[in-house]
Amino acid sequence: MRYELKDLRLFQAIVEAGNLSVGAAAMHMTASSASYRLKNLEYAVGSPLFLRTPKGMRPTPAGEVLGRHAKRLLADVETMHAELSDYSSNLRGSIRLLANSSSLNSFIIPSLARFLASNANINVDLKEKESPTISQAIEEGQADIGVGAGLEERPGLRRELYAVDRLVCVVAPDHPLAGATSVAFHDLLAYDLVSMDRGSSNFLYLSNQARLAGMPMRVRVHVHNFSSVIYMVRAGVGAAIVPASTAQTALLQDVVVALEITDSWAARELYLVYACGPDQPPLIREFADILLNDPQVAVAREKH
Questions:
Q1: Within 13 Å of residue 180, how many CA atoms lie on the same side as its CB?
Q2: Secondary element (H or E) of residue 16
Q3: Which of 65, 92, 125, 251 has a Cα at 20 to 30 A from 166?
Q4: Which domain holds residue 14?
C-alpha cells in the first residue's frame, strides 16, 4: 500500500473537525478535492474510514486504526523536518514561471501561494504570456517553467498534461441567451461582450478566433481579472467567455448562467513544459512536481 502524507494530513483534519468541508478548508482544499482524495485513501486502505451521521463524520474501526498510526507518523515527520531544517536553512532559489491567463487564474495562483508560504527563501518571477509563445520562451531561456494551452512537444522540453479546462460563455440571468444551453462563437459575436484587458492572453486568443470567424468582437469594457469580468456580467454589461473553473462560485450563487461554447477550440488542454537538460537545477523539477500534484489540478485532469 502507498499512502500520501497530504492524504493522511487531510484525514487527520477531517477527524479533528468531524466534517469534510471544515477539514478541507483547514488544508486549503475545496470540498470536492478533499472528497476525491479521501476516496482514494479509502481505496488504498480497502475499507471505509468514516461513518456519516447527523452529528458529523466519525471514524470507522478502520479509521480509528489509521488515525492512531497517522498521528504518530505525522508527528515523526514534523520532528524529522525540524531536525533537518538546520541543514536546509540556506536553500535559496528563484524560479521564472510563465502562464497563460486560464491556467494562471484557475489553478496556479492557489498552488503558488501554498508553495511560497512554505518556502521562505525561494522567489517566483511570475508573468502572463500568450500560449503560442511560451514554449519558445522556455527554449530561449527566458523562463524556467511554462504553463499554457495546447503547448506542442519540442526536442529538449519536457511536456506534461497539467489540467483540462473549458471556455464557457457566461451571461446574466436576464440576458437574451440565458435560456439556451449552448452557443456558437460566431453567434455570440452579435452581442456586447466583457473581456480581459487587451494585453491578456485570453483576449488575444479570442481576438484571433474572432478574426478567423470574420467578425469583430463588440467589447464594451476591458477589465484586469476574471473576477471583474464576472462582476460586469452580473451587472448586465454583456456576455463573456471565461474558463469554466473561474465561474464556479458565481454559478453556485445563481448570479450568472453558463452556456457551452460549441466550437472545438473551447476545450483547452493545459500543458506544463520545462527544459530537461542535464544542467537543469533540481529545484525546477521539484517545483514542476508541486504544480502538477496540486489536488485541484489533479482533479481537473481526472475529470477528463
A1: 16
A2: helix 5-17
A3: 125
A4: 5-88
Identify the CA nearest to 212 among candidates 264, 176, 148, 250. 264
Q: Domain with 22 in it: what CATH number?
A: 1.10.10.10
The pTM (predicted TM-score) of the whole model is 0.58
The domain that contains 284 carries what CATH number? Answer: 3.40.190.290
Domain end residue (candidates: 50, 69, 88)? 88
Q: How far is CA 102 from the centre of its chain?
A: 9
Q: Which grid coordinates are listed for 74?
A: 505525522
Residues in CB range of 302: below 8 A, 6 or more apart? 36
Q: Is 82 exposed, middle or buried (0-12, 13-18, 19+ CB in 10 A)?
A: exposed
Q: Cell numbers at residue 287, please?
A: 517545483
> Grid coordinates representing 284?
525546477
Per residue in 249-268, pLDDT (tens digit) is 899 899 999 999 999 999 88
Pair (152, 298) in one structural domain: yes
> Which candidate, 158, 164, 184, 165, places its Cα nearest to that of 284?
158
How many domains are there within the chain?
2
**pLDDT tens digit sequence for 277-299:** 777 788 888 889 888 888 878 87
Residues 62 and 152 in one domain: no
Question: Are the C-beta atoms of 150 and 267 separated by less than 8 Å?
Answer: no
